[in-house]
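thought: user wants a sequence for this fold. calling inverse folding tool.
action: design(structure=
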């Protein structure tokens, strides 16, 4: 049997293909160049809106109001018009659920300023970094030309609605109604509506609530007579209205304090969100009594200062003063405030503006505080003449010129470019917004940082209805604009914490704010405020600025310390008077029992003496810590007043003592007598006793009355004639006794060998 051998079956070969990943094409210079394009400033800030203060709905609502109000105040002041500004917040979603984190609002700001020329409306509201304030050295609230156009851009991004603008630059012509939206790609405005209207201010704003209708009927809110010209801006945006710190209410309240010449009306939305404790500065003041309540015999009360009126849905911050801030002037940059690159750029621009101009005239025209003599000296120091042209200045000469400018001793820049609030205006503004008992303000002289002038002003309010066990509150301003955020990063806050408030009787933890019922206000006025960011929320910490702030705070602190010490002394004297009055009755009864003196008259005299010794307890202090008292005639120069009962008719006049103002008041040696008695000190009485009644040789001393001394009589007993004379003298002396009985003199009796009274004649007690 043959075996069958099966051949092995070969397995089929499987071909494996290696798949290689296709490598991504590397970018080349040409492809990268194709993707590069120009970025407009609007597109940049649309993606980085937190840099402008639009990082959350609540802050975005505040920033929108802030930018519009700042523009209105600047326009009114530059045109010489007392500002009358109305801010309206309309809640467009009042029926939203309680869990909603934001809502849609319409923000409207109306002013009575000069209005805006029609052809400039698109540029002002539809372009970022467009304005007239960036290139000039002059104090103003706005600086960069971003604010109101950025607010319109934020509203367009969040709601898709354009800005609505009403403006009337001429009272004899109709107003313009324009609606526009900003194109972030091109940084240009796209107008969607443009028409003329006679309706200005918009009539719908007067019908929002019962309070607006009432004030509009009275002609005190958005009347056509008070707004012959002006501008109205409306922006719809996604925001959040919430009372408390960092709110629209606080911003307008502080704006009214720093701008007492402005009248601001604020219409609140119908629905609010209160998630934190509201601690406003505003406190309602008691209303002044009406003339009918005062009675016919009462004198007319002085006009009460303007105070804020809160009607619930409407708040009116009245105008406290009717004078505009001083008009500011534009100045040229100071030589010490520029850098080398800026100097080179200025030389190029000067050559383009005026070809062939000389360096001598360039230094005088483009810089402030450079006199003809100084300009000639600079030309000589760098090796050129006064006729050398600007075009002939090379880089090396420009460097030498820059060094000479920095090393020179030039006068500081002028300060007429600044418009500070002023001490009296700050006090009126603080009184209008802060319910306190003591107010003080200080204004420093202008100083320099980086060649730019600036001025620091401070004010404090103490006591009253302010919380006594909490850290003090700091309100910061820059060019009259409140700064509500980034407090710890601001130079103002650092200056407050570094000031030693313990010197002024306040509690002050290290590195923190002082504790007590205190509100501290700081204001910086400058042609260019060095903010830490584009949102303008904190002042940069320059050493020169912080030093001036601390000096101004110390000046206010000294006034506060004087007031607190005076108030403490008044309290101590009041407690001292209570002790006096507690025992005066017992002292009166004891003296009456001893010498049968009239108790009622003695009690009244002791009461008067106690009040005189503790007179400071009756002082009334005003808001600045000064004593409120009637004008004393003796304080007038060239006046002499003799107090009744101070000097005996038979006495010679006492040497008059001058008062503070140069007047003269005659006073006794030891104060007023208790019972209309002749004043006599212990030392004077002892001197009389030693001299035996002889008149004192001291100049100005009163001649003493004759006094009998029994020790001079032989035998110690007087004759009948001497006894009669003694009785007459005793009767005369009974009406002129000193306030305290004189201790009897003792003599050695030769019969008994004991001390016996030397005066056996008639005595008082």
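)
observation: tool returned 765 residues.
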């Amino acid at each position: 049997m043959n075996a069958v051998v099966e051949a092995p079956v070969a397995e089929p070969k499987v071909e494996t293909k290696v798949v290689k990943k296709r490598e991504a094409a590397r970018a080349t210079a040409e492809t990268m160049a194709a993707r590069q394009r120009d970025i407009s400033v609007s597109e940049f800030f649309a993606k980085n809106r937190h840099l402008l203060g639009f990082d959350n709905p609540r802050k975005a609502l505040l920033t929108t109001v802030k930018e519009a109000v700042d523009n209105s105040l600047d326009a009114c002041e530059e045109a010489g018009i007392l500002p009358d500004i109305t801010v309206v917040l309309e809640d467009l979603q009042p029926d939203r659920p309680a869990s909603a984190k934001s809502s849609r609002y319409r923000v409207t700001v109306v002013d009575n300023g000069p209005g805006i020329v029609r052809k400039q409306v698109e540029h002002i509201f539809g372009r970022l970094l467009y304005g007239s304030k960036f290139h000039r050295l002059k104090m103003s609230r706005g600086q960069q030309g971003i604010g109101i156009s950025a607010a319109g851009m934020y509203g367009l991004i969040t709601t898709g609605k354009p800005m609505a603008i009403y403006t009337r630059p001429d009272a004899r012509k109709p107003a313009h109604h324009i609606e526009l939206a900003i194109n972030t790609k091109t940084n240009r405005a796209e107008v969607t509506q443009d028409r003329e209207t006679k309706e200005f201010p918009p009539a719908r704003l007067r019908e929002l609530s019962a309070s607006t209708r009432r004030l509009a009927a009275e002609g005190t809110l958005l009347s056509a007579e008070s707004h012959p010209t002006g501008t109205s801006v409306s922006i719809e945006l996604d925001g959040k209205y919430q009372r408390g710190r960092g709110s629209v209410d606080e911003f307008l309240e502080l704006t009214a304090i720093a701008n007492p010449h402005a009248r601001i009306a604020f219409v609140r939305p119908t629905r609010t969100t209160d998630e934190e404790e509201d601690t406003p500065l505003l406190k309602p003041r008691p209303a002044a009594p009406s003339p009918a309540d005062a009675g016919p015999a009462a004198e007319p009360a002085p006009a009460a200062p303007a105070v804020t009126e809160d009607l619930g849905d409407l708040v009116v911050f009245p105008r406290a003063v009717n004078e505009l801030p001083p008009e500011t002037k534009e100045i040229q940059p100071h030589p010490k405030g520029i850098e080398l690159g800026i100097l080179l750029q200025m030389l190029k621009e000067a050559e383009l503006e005026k070809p062939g101009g000389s360096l001598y005239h360039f230094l005088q025209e483009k810089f402030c505080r450079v006199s003809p003599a100084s300009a000639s000296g600079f030309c000589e120091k760098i090796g050129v003449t006064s006729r050398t042209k600007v075009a002939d200045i090379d880089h090396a000469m420009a460097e030498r010129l820059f060094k000479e400018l920095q090393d020179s001793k030039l006068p500081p820049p002028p300060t007429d470019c600044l418009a500070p609030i002023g001490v009296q205006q700050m006090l009126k503004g603080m009184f209008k917004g802060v319910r306190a008992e003591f107010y003080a303000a200080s204004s420093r002289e202008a100083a320099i940082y980086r060649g730019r002038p600036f001025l620091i002003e401070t004010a404090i309010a103490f006591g009253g209805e302010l919380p006594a066990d909490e850290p003090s509150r700091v309100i910061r301003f820059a060019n009259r604009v409140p700064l509500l955020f980034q407090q710890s990063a601001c130079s103002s806050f650092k200056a407050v914490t570094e000031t030693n408030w313990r010197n002024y009787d306040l509690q002050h933890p290290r590195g923190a704010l002082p504790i007590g019922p205190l509100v501290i206000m700081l204001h910086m006025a400058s042609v260019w405020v060095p903010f830490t960011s584009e949102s303008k929320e904190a002042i940069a910490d320059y050493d020169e600025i912080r030093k001036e702030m601390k000096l101004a705070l110390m000046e206010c602190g000294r006034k506060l310390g004087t007031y607190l010490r005076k108030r403490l002394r008044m309290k101590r004297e009041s407690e001292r008077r209570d002790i006096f009055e507690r025992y005066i009755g017992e002292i009166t009864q004891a003296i009456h029992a001893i010498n049968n003196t009239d108790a009622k008259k003695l009690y009244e005299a002791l009461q008067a003496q106690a009040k005189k010794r503790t007179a400071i307890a009756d002082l009334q202090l005003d808001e600045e810590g000064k004593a409120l008292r009637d004008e004393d005639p003796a304080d007038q120069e060239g006046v002499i007043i003799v107090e009744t009962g101070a000097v005996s008719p038979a006495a010679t006049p006492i040497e008059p003592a001058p008062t503070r103002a140069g007047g003269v008041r005659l006073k006794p040696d030891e104060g007023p007598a208790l019972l209309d008695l002749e004043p006599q000190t212990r030392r004077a009485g002892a001197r009389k006793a030693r001299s035996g009644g002889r008149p004192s040789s001291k100049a100005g001393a009163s001649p003493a009355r004759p006094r009998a001394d029994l020790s001079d009589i032989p035998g110690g007993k007087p004759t009948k004639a001497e006894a009669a004379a003694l009785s007459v003298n005793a009767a005369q002396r009974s009406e002129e006794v000193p306030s305290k009985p004189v201790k009897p003199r003792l003599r050695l009796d030769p019969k008994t060998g004991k001390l016996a009274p030397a005066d056996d004649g008639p005595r008082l007690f």
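thought: summarizing for user.
answer: Here is the designed sequence. The longest strand covers residues 452-462.
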